[in-house]
Amino acid sequence: MKTYFVAFRLVTAFSLAVFLSSTGTSATEPMPDPFAGMADEYRTLTRPLLQQFCLECHSTAKQEGDLDLERFAALADVRRGTKAWLKVVEMLDNGEMPPAESKQPSPEQRKQLRGWVERYLHAESLANAGDPGSVVLRRLNNAEYTYTIRDLTGVDLDPAREFPTDSAAGEGFTNAGNALSMSPALLAKYLDAGKEIARHAVLLPDGIRFSQFTAQRDWTNEMLLKIRQFYRQRVEIVDLGVGTSVGLMNLHGDCRLGEAGKLPLEKYFAATLAERAALRSGEKTISVVAAERGLNAKYLGLLWTNMDATEPSPLLDGLRSRWRDAKPEDAAALVTEVAAWQRGLWAFNVVGLMGRKGSGTQWQEPVSPFVVQQEFRLPIPAAKEGEAAKEVVISLVVGDCGDGNEQDFVVWHQPRLVADKQPDIFLRDIPELKGIDPATFGKHPSGKSLDAASLCVRAPSVITLRLPGTIAAGRTLVTTAALDSEAGGDASVQPDVVLGEAEVKSGLMVATTTATLSTVTALYPDHRTVSYQKPVLVAEEGAASKTFAAAMEAHRQLFPISLCYPQVVPTDEVLTLTQFHREDEHLVRLLLDEAEKREIDRLWDELRFVSQDPLKLAAVLDSLVETTKDHPQDGGFNEAVKPFHQRADVFRQRLIDCEPKQLDALIDFASRAFRRPLDEQAVEDYRSLYRKLRSEELSHEDAFRLVLARIFVAAPFLYRFESVPDGASSAQVSHSELASRLSYFLWSSLPDEELRAKAAEGTLGHPDVLEQQTRRMLKDPRVRRLGTEFACQWMHIYDFPATEAKSVQLFPEFEELRTDMYEESILFLTGLFQNDAPLLGLLNADHTFVNERLAKFYGIAGIEGESWRRIEGIQQHGRGGILGLAATLAKQSGASRTSPILRGNWVSEVLLGEKLPRPPKDVPQLADTVSDGLTERQMIERHSSDAACAKCHQRVDPLGFALEGFDAIGRRRKQSQTGLAIDTRTKLADGREIDGLAGLRSYLLEQRRNAVVGQFCRKLLGYALGRETQLSDQPLLAEMQQKLAENGYRTSTAVLAIVQSRQFREIRGRDTPPSAGR
Amino acid sequence: MRNHTFQRRTFLRGLGVTMALPWMETLPVWGDDASTSTKRPNEPPVRLAVLFSGNGFHAGQWWAKGVGKEMTLGPVLESLTDFRERLLFINGLYNAEALKGNIHSSQTGNLLSGAPLASGGEIRSGTSFDQLVAQHYGHSTKVPSLVLGCERSNPGIHKNYSMLYSSHISWSSPTAPTPLELYPALAFDRLFKGEGERGDRGVLDAVLGEASRFRGKISTSDRQKLDEYLNSVREVEQRLEQASKQGELQGWRPTLDKPNVPRPPDGIPQNLADHMRLMCDILVLAFQTDATRVCTLKLNNDHSYLQFPHLNVAVGHHELSHSDRGKMSPDWLKVNQFFLEQFAYIARKLDAIQEGERTALDNSVLMYLSSMQTGSHDASNLPCVVVGGGGGRLQGGRVLDYASQPNRKMCSLYLSLLDKFGIRLKEFGDSNEHLAEV
Q1: CATH number of the domain enclosing B53
Q2: Considering the domain boundaries, does residue A761 fall inside one?
Q3: Is residue B314 less than 8 Å (CB to CB) from chain A?
Q4: In Å, how far are A579, A645, A648 from A351, measured between CA atoms?
Q5: CA torsion A872→A875→A877→A883, rounded to 10°?
Q6: pLDDT tens figures, A883-924
Q7: Which residues of A are less than 8 Å from B120 in CB distance?
Q8: Looking at the structure, do residues A499 and A572 belong to the same domain, yes or no?
Q9: What is the pLDDT of residues A551-588, one digit of tens each?
Q10: Nearest to B315 among A702, A799, A895 (CB)
């Protein structure tokens, strides 16, 4: 058994007739005839009353006010003209009819007439309950068109900005079909807008995307930005500073190495150190630690495994042993050690030079600082003028590389002092030489002899030589270190020559590498020289050489100096054949999972595709070859020509190969745009337009864009077509049509992927799925559009910033504030739906939304900045709910002063859904004598005391007087503009006395709750259906109101009742006359 | 001369569909080619401009007395003094349907048609008389009519009538208000932009075919809505065709074949006076170049919220209209005069264009209307002034007062004016009589 608690509006003015219908209905029992007994009653009681009081004017002959009541001879006639009876109720309730000068019915007669009409209308509403009604074919209004385009393209375009403003129909919303007409002028605008939108399409290898921009350069930049962002999200950007010195045609000297993308290694080390025990014991896994610390699990795992490993590695052993002893705070020291070796194991190339003769192919190049011999040239400072030359101390150092020293014999070949144009002086020949036994020269530690001026030592060794300043100062010490010829393949040493004393320990010292390009006019990249400090001396092809090569490689693999080339575009050379340089194999290898790898590959492919890089480079190359003819650089680019041209040819072919895929994507896009699957004919239609345009010699891209533009002008895009069932009965719309109804109701836009999927699998129509989808959609940010399009239109503040202006002299601050006022309203109203808040919060919410400007305007301290935030306790500031929104208060004011009439009328018509009688034809003007010493209220009270006006003003004005505590821009006030005291106490039409906003609020909440809630239901239903509500909607409206009351007035209750209703889910049959149900 | 209606029907048959042509049906005596009967090929055409502003005028300051040179004009009309001899001041006319509904919207949406207005959530008026003229002239000029506005329309419903009515006096059909162009630059483009771009025609052809395939699948009432679309597409196509044939027209040539001023800047000018001035200039330019012969310029909405800081007036239009205290309201007078000055500006500019023996003003009918007499919603006596020679068919310098006449319908005036454009109808709106004096 289901009981309708019917809140019956009957378009009456003030008597919201609420009565309880005890008519029990259920699916199994046949419903009793709601019209039972009505025909007789009409004939015997009602009709005679009409004859007596109405038919004199409302006869078939006279039809005053276009109303003919004479034609209703019997109930059957009445039922064919229901609309006239709604008018009868309105006139009776407004006290407009019968006119005052005519004969009046007795109270009993009036009650009989009014009661019968009411019962009749109620019966009529039940008879057709659930009728979907006549919904005029809807064009997307400007807002829907814009949102739909934005959701389709993912770009915030504003293609409707210069379209004519939409008008409202139905329940007062711009989504009603009959207000949405089409004209040649508008169609031409759609065509232009469509072409403009199509210009934002970016053609990709496998389809299209849309961009905020319309130029290829910008699209390229967008891709670049995406790639850089991809890198930046994963590495830290560190400037490498000025590095290699280069020059081409003297265009520049020093060049920046650019930026490196590094891992925050310290955090990784710290994690392994801090969680060492937990990881070892298995208490935590790597992924848990990584997640806790926001680190990349893949790399953390690698680092852990490597540090925890035991197999020997000459480069990593030292690090590992220190790691084993380290505490979390020692992480930085470990990083320093790693970084030191990175400088020895990596060198950088000039990216801008790539593609040229002899250039490298990688930006960061692995180098291995090991050599078979190393020459040292150590300049010794000259003595300062006027000072005696001091003794010079030089150390010849040899380390043992930490891998044992059995074979580590090294020869210092002929250490000597050299100077320009002077004979070399062998150290052996300097008598004053100290620090070494001269007999050591020419002798191997094993006793055998060697070159007489040379030394041979076994690492580790330091020979600290002291030379007399008089001989040594200003000269250069020159020697070459090499392994002794008898040292075996296992030998490995690290020689170094330094000024001063030195020590050496067993172990590997950090080597460093320097790469230099000399600055000369005619230069190719192969002029680069690489030098090392503390390189490792090993025998060629020896075992040690292999061990060290492997160890260095292992270090490079685990600790690359940069994970990627994050700037993508080289800036280290002016004339370059490299537009974009991809070097991220370390990033890919060390950090990325499979999906990320595909993503970065896709980004790069799109970058090259969108920028048409191969074509651009071939063109640049051709012009370079041309400009360097007969120039010292002639030939510098020749080697590159052929591969570049080949790549360009391949790319051209690829562009052609991609055309069919792009066209397929266009067809998919059309289907999405049209909110329906395309049939074969439609698909062929789109393809044939493309072919036709190509045959008119348009390029692929031009033709493609025009076909795309066509989608946005096409009727199935601009109109919300729905298939009509044959016959006169209503039927459910299809799943995909239901998806569109839902999405245009809640989002003013097309269905998203999930909704489309539910429609495609045919489950959307299931009540549970429908509810679940509706709830999901209400939580989605797009529900802001319901807050804007529905709620702001209902509240008459739609497009407030564009439609509301105030006197600049009186309210200079308004222009800046009006956007904020509107934003506050949108956020507040959206929140009702998004948070499933109680509807009554519309009136009694204690929160609102502010930014700094609005907070200041409201007199709320402590809010800083542009950002919007929700604040609680707004009632303390005399506001709360829509009655206290600056936007509603300002909207219902004049340009220079408040208007209690407008505000009162707004409360009455917009919030309570009352209909006031028509104002008298000739409103008396305010008397000339009205002086300026009156408040707005006092002026109106004079005006409204005129008898002809008082009837309405007594009802409306007091509601507005209660809001007089706010000025014309919604600011709280105690005084009028002219300094007079403001009075917010007022006596309502029913004699009740209230004061101010708070008084009005509790009056509406307590005395008029049903009216407010009923008005909300009616407006929301009208908005959802795109039509005016009709009599047969009354049972649904009553159900909504009842469910709201039962569910704490949560807004979702009303929304769900609508989307599950027959009205929402069905469409009238082809043969139903459009006027039915009106 | 070709018959436009026939062309359209031929085309529609070509699509294999039959469709309702709402605005054709409103013309019971359509058929004889009026353009041959009203003008010789070498004579300049007659143009129609309708200017509108809402909320009525200053009580007691809108009046005219006397005849010809001796005519005196009330303060609101002062700026028209130079045109007294070509001016008709018409008093006492009304629209019966406008008295039936509520206020504002329901008094405005049928101002030029006299049609009943649908209330509640529905929208229906009637084809307006200016658009009738446009449909009559449509095929001979680049655009059939130019409908301009200086205030954006309001969404919403007021007193049970869509506010669409308070901002649209031009209606292409009973269900299609003619959209207003608010942007001067776009109005300019509409008149003078070229024939479109390569491929446009192909696209339009394609969407036309596509939409007509939907016709069979939708309800009968929806078809009417879709037909608005189909007709619009076709008309844009025809316009492109027309543009490519520019210069082939025989007979009378306008004094200007392309605009002699640059395209206005994008956007809507901040200052209302600048906005209105630009729109007036475009109207004159459209007539001078014969890009259109019909222009309706809505200076503001009925129920207007326009502000007038440039006149040092701090109150909005609607509010001003309600604070009319006779001589005590200089601001209201100032604003009224400002609107009429726009009208006078157009007349003056047209009068400076010599077209053979007559000026363009002599070849025009300029009409200024409001939807109520004063701000107090009284629509039983509508303010109406007509300036111009109507191609020699309009006798100015007179005050016509119908206030006490039995035949005082606005639609009677429209019937008489339609005659000047060779459109001879027996009835229009709520009238089947002409105004003999006009």
Answers
A1: 3.40.720
A2: no
A3: yes
A4: 10, 20, 21
A5: 110
A6: 999 999 999 998 888 999 999 999 999 999 998 877 766 665
A7: 1028
A8: no
A9: 999 999 999 999 999 999 987 776 777 889 999 999 99
A10: A895
